[in-house]
């Protein structure tokens, strides 16, 4: 079953970019390294891709896999396929051959667009049912040159699935999240309203992987409104900060691990970030101590913290003026979005009481590919949940307590890892922290912390335990603290608790 929320904007993403190209055809739209496309050139290449898709025998509703690192061709491929009614299945370039094989089998893609350096991994995967593999390089350019530059004649609709992005599989086998034009166009308008960005005069950076729903959204939103975006091919904190200064960027998206890298690397240089209107953080909650460092570094009027999921899109945002007023908070409901906090019976809980967070909006996904009925497991009518525990205050501000699935039960007590992490992160020597429950014969689960220290900082597990004991109840204190060199993360910088739960993450100090 597909989810079809009610009234929403009936426009496709290429429609918006085509309108921008009519207004300012010679304006630079997209840059990556020393390569650039004007709006007219971008639309021409989108049209050539869509006609190439038809030539390759792809029909409305088919899937084609895109396996590329961040590069200029990513946007034209996804949107060109969408203009032919074809869903782009976006896969991370770090995916293993086994992951690629699983996704190919699951999505049924018949055509694959792949970077030259990733061809070997595709061959190792067995190739699934791929009928045509197109290497994005000279062969791809030759095919585009032969393809028509006329607008594709295939009818498309706002509810068409333009992109299928697979989750990291933290709760089981990866699931293909189906994203429609409707969902993303509404997200673009909500983002523009909430963050004050994305006018034709604004300049943005695409800082995170484009195969992720959020990464692609942050790259394409500026183009939808006629602005400018530069794609960063890979993450390097000094290059990112230098790009803000060079481009005079107005809007960027950074994840918590980006900030950790910035503050743990003392380059001795302060970058000029005065052009920023909106510094948007997402994928995981920021620790309060980290928020304070960000506000101190970038200034008090720039940081927006967002909470959401691939399925629900953006659910809430904490505005700059609230960062130091509403502690450990992820803000109020995002534009076009309603939120509720419910008990196990589906009743709204009182203010200040934890419950399961649900949201409803036209920004939501359309269901899981090839998993009929799975989306229903996380729905109550038009409301969906990611399984997060949260509470609302009397002003309607949202506070994340933790993921329901991450809750630790130790000695019969419920313990939320985020509270323990916040406490440890407040220690001046701690740069990063991940807390999980590990099996224990007596306690059931033992609170276990993995801690990365700041560069040139020193602290022992006992030091950190004494610090935690100043504020945490005794039953919440870690039974073990491991000092490690880094934490396992996915491609968007989110800590992989499932890896930590295996109990063998290496301690190197």
TrEMBL record:
Cross-referenced Gene3D superfamilies: 3.30.300.30, N-terminal domain of ligase-like
Keyword field contains Ligase: yes
Single biological process term from Gene Ontology: fatty acid metabolic process
Enzyme nomenclature, EC number: 6.2.1.44
Domain of life of the source: Bacteria
GO MF annotation list: medium-chain fatty acid-CoA ligase activity
Domain AMP-binding enzyme C-terminal, chain residue ranges per copy: 419-494
PROSITE patterns: AMP_BINDING
Any Pfam family matching the protein: AMP-binding
Record-annotated AMP-dependent synthetase/ligase domain positions: 18-369
Enzyme class: ligase
Keywords assigned by UniProt, alphabetized: Ligase
Reaction it catalyzes: 3-(methylsulfanyl)propanoate + ATP + CoA = 3-(methylsulfanyl)propanoyl-CoA + AMP + diphosphate
Presence of the UniProt keyword Ligase in the record: yes
Family of the protein in this entry: Belongs to the ATP-dependent AMP-binding enzyme family.
Entry protein name: 3-methylmercaptopropionyl-CoA ligase
């Amino acid at each position: 079953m597909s989810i079809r929320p009610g009234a929403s904007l009936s426009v496709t993403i290429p429609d918006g970019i085509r309108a921008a190209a009519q207004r300012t055809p010679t304006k630079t739209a997209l840059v990556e390294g020393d390569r650039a496309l004007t709006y007219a050139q971008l639309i021409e290449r989108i049209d050539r891709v869509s006609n190439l898709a038809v030539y390759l025998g792809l029909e409305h509703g088919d899937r084609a896999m895109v396996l590329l690192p961040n590069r200029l061709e990513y946007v034209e491929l996804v949107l060109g396929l969408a203009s032919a009614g074809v869903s782009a299945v976006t896969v991370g370039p770090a995916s293993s051959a086994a992951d690629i094989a699983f996704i190919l089998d699951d999505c049924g893609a018949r055509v694959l667009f792949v970077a030259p350096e990733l061809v070997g991994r595709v061959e190792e995967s067995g190739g699934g049912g791929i009928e045509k593999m197109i290497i994005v390089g000279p062969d791809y350019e030759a095919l585009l040159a032969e393809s028509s530059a006329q607008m594709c004649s295939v009818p498309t609709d706002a509810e068409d699935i333009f992109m299928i992005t697979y989750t990291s599989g933290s709760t089981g086998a990866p699931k293909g999240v189906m994203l429609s034009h409707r969902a993303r166009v509404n997200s673009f308008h909500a983002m523009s309203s909430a963050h004050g960005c994305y006018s034709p005069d604004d300049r943005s950076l695409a800082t995170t992987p484009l195969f992720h729903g959020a990464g692609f959204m942050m790259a394409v939103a500026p183009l939808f409104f006629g602005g400018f975006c530069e794609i960063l091919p890979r993450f390097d904190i000094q290059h990112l900060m230098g790009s803000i200064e060079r481009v005079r960027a107005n809007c960027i998206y950074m994840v918590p691990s980006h900030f950790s890298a910035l503050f743990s690397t003392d380059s001795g240089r302060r970058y000029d970030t005065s052009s920023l209107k909106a510094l948007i953080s997402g994928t995981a909650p920021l620790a309060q101590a980290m928020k304070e460092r960000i506000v101190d570094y970038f200034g008090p009027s720039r940081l927006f913290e967002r909470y959401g999921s691939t399925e629900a899109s953006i659910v809430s945002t904490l505005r700059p003026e609230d960062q130091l007023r509403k502690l450990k908070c992820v803000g109020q409901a995002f534009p076009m979005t309603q939120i509720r906090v419910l008990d196990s019976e589906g009743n709204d809980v009182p203010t200040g009481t934890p419950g399961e967070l649900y949201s409803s909006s036209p920004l939501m996904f359309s269901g899981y590919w090839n998993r009929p009925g799975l989306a229903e497991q996380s729905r109550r009518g038009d409301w969906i949940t990611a399984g997060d525990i949260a509470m609302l205050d009397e002003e309607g501000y949202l506070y994340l307590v933790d993921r329901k699935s991450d809750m630790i039960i130790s000695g019969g007590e419920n313990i939320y890892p985020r509270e323990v992490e916040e406490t440890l992160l407040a220690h001046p020597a701690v740069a990063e922290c991940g807390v999980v429950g590990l099996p224990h014969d007596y306690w059931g689960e033992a609170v276990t912390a993995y801690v990365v220290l700041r560069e040139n900082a020193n602290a022992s597990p006992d030091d950190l335990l004494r610090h935690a004991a100043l504020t945490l109840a005794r039953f919440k204190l870690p039974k073990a603290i491991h000092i490690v060199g880094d934490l396992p993360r996915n491609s968007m910088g989110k800590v992989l608790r499932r890896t930590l739960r295996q109990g063998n993450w290496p301690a190197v100090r």
